[in-house]
Amino acid sequence: MFHPLRVSAIERITDDAVAVTLAVPAELRETFRHTPGQHLNVRYTVDGQEVRRSYSICAPATEQPGEPVLRVGIRMVEGGAFSTYALKELAVGDQVEAMPPMGRFVLKPRPGLFAAVVGGSGITPVLSMAATLLDREPTARFCLIRSDRTAASTMFLDEVADLKDRYPDRFQLVTALSREEQSAGLPSGRLDTERLTGLLPAVLPVPEVDGWFLCGPLGLVRGTEKALKALGVDRSRVHQEIFHVDEGPADVTVVKVAAPSDSVLTATLHGRSGSWPVENAESLLETVLRSRSDAPYACKGGVCGTCRAFLVSGEVRMDRNFALEPEETEAGFVLACQSHPLTPEVELDFDR
Questions:
Q1: In Å, how far are 20, 50, 77, 80, 254 from 306, measured between CA atoms?
Q2: CA-based nearest residue to 35, from 99, 98, 101, 100
């Protein structure tokens, strides 16, 4: 369910990025408390069209009574309807509709050594993770390896520097700039699999890391996954969230298979079930949306994971999947926006 929230602050953090803070009414404070790493799905009407997007929360999570801080990072994307609006027109006092925080790319504070490899705006959820962990767990350590184009384009530069100042013995920072030379000893250029395989063991004891968090463009995330695999890291310790998929990965194949002409979808959402025919080549999400406008979605591109549902029965194919972990698909979860029926009857449960 979406709730109207007032914009209470807008900060320009780079030439093409802002941090937007949303005020939470007293009656919604518990609803909008977040776990570090979660995101908000927001919607707004731009030029008469409803636009939905997902933005990660960068503020630390709080357990204290009072208003939770909902601060999200937004970088302008070429052709992006909401990001362009946020940077050029959104003002303090405006209202934005948002769903409660969601997402499974999270770090619940606990003792241990944790590491993150991020690129560009991928710093946003990880900033919340690091700040919350270091504040709540006096023995926890965090290593942040971040890749950006230039120093001027680096989001949350001051906030990350503040973490380094506050926790000099527990927070380690390594920055790589792909389009700018750095001082001797600091990495420059793109962080690919080969470079990461050499860099990671040089900056921290890889076998001792309790959890890896990868966030940013598809190429960086996939490259880091390969490097960690080569270094012997167990897949269960690696968590990832992809922000951009412009590269068009070779290992994802979109298979155009005609759905059975008489397929019927049964779906459970918010405790209510219904059945509808699947028309033409539409996705199962589109089938549900024809009758249930409250069906959860944001990107419709297989990236954000908002439309995750459990496949109760039947078979489907997914065109793309950049959001679900292997263990989730093995357990029977699918992305409704990318799923098409392969059997005459399919049943989904959005409530699991």
A1: 21, 17, 20, 19, 20
A2: 101
pLDDT of amino acid 253:
35
- Burial (CB count within 10 angstroms: exposed 0-12, middle 13-18, buried 19+), residue 277: exposed
Query: Per the domain annotation, does 251 fall within a domain?
Result: no
Q: Choose among 216, 168, 180, 167: nearest CA to 196.
A: 216
Question: What's the CA gap between 86 and 80, in Å, rounded?
Answer: 10
* DSSP single-letter state for residue 288: H
105 located within any domain: no
Low pLDDT (below 50) residues in the chain = 184, 247-257
Q: Say yes or no: 122 and 83 in one domain.
A: no
Q: Helix H segments across 204-283?
A: 218-230
The pTM for the full model equals 0.86
How many separate domains does the chain show? 3
Please name every residue paired with 222 in a beta bridge, in sequence order, or none if there are none.
Answer: none
**Residue 97 Cα distances to 7, 23, 45, angstroms:** 10, 11, 10
In the block, tokens 């419709």 appear at: 300
Which one, of 65, 252, 60, 259, lies nearest residue 166 by Cα?
A: 60
Q: Which of 67, 98, 129 is the last residue of a domain?
A: 98
Question: Two tokens at 231?
Answer: 């270094």
pLDDT of residue 48: 83
User: Residue 256: what pLDDT?
Assistant: 44
The closest of 337, 311, 335, 314 to 324, measured between CA atoms, is: 335
Q: Is 137 helix (H, G, I), strand (E, B) or coil?
A: coil
Residue 75 pLDDT: 95
Q: Which domain holds residue 296?
A: 264-349
Distance (Å) of CA 33 to CA 100, 101, 304: 8, 7, 20
Nearest to 294 by CA among 97, 106, 39, 21: 97
On whether residue 253 sits in a domain, the answer given is: no
pLDDT tens profile 191-243: 899 999 999 999 999 999 999 999 999 999 999 999 999 999 999 999 999 98
pLDDT recorded at residue 78: 83
| pLDDT at site 249 | 40
Among candidate residues 145, 318, 306, 155, the one with its CA nearest the CA of residue 221: 145
Q: Which residue is listed with tokens 């959820």? A: 125
